[in-house]
Amino acid sequence: MLLGRATAAGTRRYQERHKNDCVSDHFRVAGELIASSIGLGTYLGEADEQTDTLMTQAVVASVRRGINLIDSSINYRYQHSERTVGKSIQDLVKSGEVSRDELIICTKGGFLSHPNQNPADWFYQKYVEPSNSQIKMTDLVAQEHCIHPEFLQEQLNSSLSNLGLQTIDVYYIHNPETQLQEVAPDTFYHRLQSAFKFLEAAADEGKIAAYGLATYSGLRVPLTAKEHLDLARAKSLAQAVARNKKDRFRFIQFPFNMAMLEALVAPTQKLGETEVPILAAAYNLGIIPIASSSLCQGQVVGNIPQHIASAFSDIHTDCQRALQYTRSAPGILTALVGMKTLEHIEENLTLTAVSPLDREKFSELTHSIIAVLKAMNIGNDNWTFDIAKLADQMNIPLSV
After folding, report:
1. Do the Cβ atoms of 80 and 51 come closer than 8 Å?
2. What is the DSSP pairing of strand 104-109 with strand 168-174?
3. What gap in Å lies between CA 387 and CA 398, rounded to an integer?
4. Which of 253, 272, 330, 364 could form a disulfide with 214 if both were Cys (CB 3.0 to 4.6 A apart)?
5. What is the torsion angle, in degrees rounded to the nearest 10, for the CA atoms of residue 374, residue 379, residue 380 and residue 385?
6. What is the pLDDT of residue 112?
7. 106: closest CA among 37, 215, 216, 6?
8. How far is CA 159 from CA 41, 79, 96, 153, 394, in A?
9. For the chain, what percent of residues have pLDDT higher than 90?
């Protein structure tokens, strides 16, 4: 087990060591930590030895090239991803190439993590049937999802073992909106508060440093949608659980890419009576956003119109353009991207030596992308983007 966690001194040391091969604004401040603006995702792939080998290659190459944030989940490739990340980090630390306190390791819990043809029966036998269990079958939603504290405790302990870590830097509840498929909002937020109570206790024990919500649709859908997540309400639950100390609910994760702009242009959250996009809501609530699906799972390749592609100077591939756009969004800490082959790693990590887009260029590109998406009947009339208004809402400068 690797002791410790990411620290201010460690992550700054990592940034300093890469000052000659990475531009300074490739790195960003996340509370007391320094994080790379590109992070390694570990979602896709078969649960086999061949994919493990490729993922090990990706972790090692990424850390060597200026990536210090790695994202996983216990259900990715049925725990193979966590175990591969853990072994890779162990090897890097043992070789002296990196220290544990330089890396920000993130993972998630909430989904069943074992391949099983009868998930309800397996869940009953493992979690409901034992006489000392407080978990009920009604805690299992959609045959795959549970956020009961006892279930999360077992998942967290398994993740710590898989990763070989004393402390996970960011632990997410994975796609909590799944619960809203079957339970009423009041029931969901009661369950979420119980989960937060467990996570605050886990932080007190040193098992995690911070926690958050990793979502797919919940933060992006309209306020009236069944699976909508109210970020302000969630934050207030964390504050209530933490009582007299500062809560550790500090991160959110959601898809953001050239085809999924909601975090930037759709007013899906409320702060008081004001409707704002996710990025503005997160900033005002003191929550750090991380973008997933930066390449829209590869769908951007070959589909970026020429007039948009040509606006990216000195960037030559669609993967690079898409990743550059996502990492340049105001308020985004890190853009996650899945990588396995050395060719893909080299292609994407070329951007570590390139500054993100300035606000003017980002604004121009966003307006062009919105026009293309609306012509394709993607998005709606509520999608508006005003860089000055967003900067004012977030109290950030208009230039990088």
Report:
1. yes
2. parallel
3. 8
4. 253
5. -90
6. 96
7. 6
8. 16, 8, 24, 10, 34
9. 88
List the domain boundaries for the chain.
8-394
Least confident of 10-19, 189-198, 256-265, 307-316: 307-316
Predicted pLDDT at 397: 67
**Has residue 192 got a pLDDT over 70?**
yes
Give the torsion sign (CA, 323, 328, 329, 335): positive
Tokens, residue 62: 């990424």
* Residue 317 scores a pLDDT above 70: yes
Tell me if 211 sits within 8 A of 247, measured CB to CB: no
User: Quick check: 53 pLDDT over 60?
Assistant: yes
19 Cβ partners below 8 Å, 6+ apart? Answer: none
The residue behind tokens 């900067």 is: 391
60-86 pLDDT tens trace: 999 999 999 999 999 999 999 999 999
Q: Which residues contact 56 (CB under 8 A, 6 or more apart)?
A: 84, 87, 88
Tokens read off for 377: 């009947």
Segment 24-35 shows an average pLDDT of 96
Distance, in Å, from the CA atom of 319 to the CA atom of 298, rounded to the nearest integer, reads: 8
DSSP class per residue in 207-226: SEEEEEEE-SSTTTS-TTST
The residue type of 298 is G
Radius of gyration over alpha carbons of the chain, in Å? 20
**Encoded tokens for 150:** 């006892």
Structure-block tokens of residue 160 = 């710590």
Cα–Cα distance for residue pair 264/348, rounded to 1 Å: 23
Quote the pLDDT of residue 400.
45
Q: What is the mean pLDDT of the chain?
A: 94
What is the residue type of 148? H
- What are the backbone angles phi and psi of residue 398, rounded to the nearest 5°? -75, -20
pTM: 0.96
Which pLDDT band holds residue 399 (cuts at 50, 70, 90)? low
Of the options 3.20.20.100, 3.40.50.300, 2.10.110.10, 3.30.70.580, the CATH number for the domain spanning 8-394 = 3.20.20.100
Q: How many CB atoms lie within 10 A of CB 174?
A: 24
DSSP string, 379-393: S-TT----HHHHHHH
Asked if residues 23 and 353 have their Cβ atoms less than 8 Å apart, the reply is yes
